[in-house]
Amino acid sequence: MPVLRLLSRIMIENSFEEKTMFTKLQSKLIAANINIRIVILVVILALFVIGAGAPGATGV
Amino acid sequence: MILILAVIAGLIATILRAMISKRRLQHVSLRLEWLVLVAVIPQILAFNLPVSARLIPDHYIPYITISSMLLLLVFTLRNISIHGFGIMTNGLASNLVAVISNGGWMPISPNTLLKLHPELPVETWKIGERLALSKDRILSQLDTHFSFLTDIFPAPNWSHYKFAFSVGDILISSGAILFLWSLSRGD
Predict the structure, then answer these.
(1) Is A53's CB within 8 Å of B168's CB?
(2) Are the beta carbons of B4 and A49 separated by less than 8 Å?
(3) What percent of chain A has pLDDT over 70?
(4) How close B6 gets to chain A, by Cα (Å)?
(5) Enclosing H/E stretch for B95
(6) What is the Cα–Cα distance from A50 to B5, expressed in whole angstroms?
(7) pLDDT per residue over A3-49, tens digit each?
(8) Residue A57 resides in a domain
(9) A44–B179: do the CB atoms touch at under 8 Å?
């Protein structure tokens, strides 16, 4: 049981760290006037541009 | 991948504009966003990831390219009233005409390749072969339909990354920049 207790403690601490990191990233983006919806919009646009464009790279 | 530079440039410009004018970037609701994912994933597998691209036989490429571009055309037409989408639709349609009229491939001529790589003999480029893992096929100008819509513009000499692009690519990049620029409008 102590092992289980230790594992659950590690998991809680890790998820807390992830949350903190996410919150920090989010606040940085908000500070730069970018919210997550804008990020998704830009990703969609980037994917569209990849699919619609047809530049030929020689790979040489 | 080179068109991504246009998106990055547009994004930097619009963020700077928003910061200077102390505005927030506006979110624009696009219709059928999911269609972009559905359309582009097969293309990423066929052209952008070397591991999967080598596994896909060349005779499947025209089906992947044309069906994917048609889905993207539906997406742009559904959003045509949004800033930049008119230009992007024209660019996509222009590339699509070039691809469909040339058997599902974007043609590139040995002359264009020679401009990109003057150090290599012209025999390096064999007519009918696929150009690396791209959407392009090497075709002589005489055998190319709508040659003015194909990859006829070589990258500048100073560019380390050697590529050629089409009128459609220019329009798509311009439309993307215009769309991103519109996100920092004041109204």
Answers:
(1) yes
(2) yes
(3) 47
(4) 9
(5) helix B85-100
(6) 11
(7) 556 556 655 555 555 567 667 766 766 655 567 889 999 999 999 99
(8) no
(9) no
Q: What is the distance between the alpha carbons of residues B187 and B44, in angstroms, rounded to a whole number?
A: 37
Domain count within chain A: 1
Show the tokens assigned to B54.
């080598």
Domain containing A17: what range?
2-52
Chain A residues touching residue B164 (CB < 8 angstroms)? 55-56
DSSP 8-state code for residue B45: I
Mutation for A interface: B1, B3, B27, most A CBs within 10 A: B3
Instruction: Identify the CA nearest to A43 among candidates B15, B7, B45, B81.
Output: B7
- Position A60 in a domain: no
Query: Measured between alpha carbons, how far is A57 from B132 in angstroms, rounded to an integer?
Result: 7
State pLDDT tens for residues B38-75.
Answer: 999 999 999 999 999 999 999 999 999 999 999 999 99
Residue A29 lies in a domain: yes
B108–A45 CB contact, under 8 Å: no
Interface contact flag, B161 A57, Cβ < 8 Å:
yes
**pLDDT, tens only, B111-143:** 999 999 999 988 889 999 999 999 999 999 999
- Chain A residue with minimum CA distance to B5: A46
For chain B, the structural domain boundaries read 34-180
Assess if residue A59 is contained within a domain: no
Question: Average pLDDT for residues B174-187, to the nearest whole number?
Answer: 92
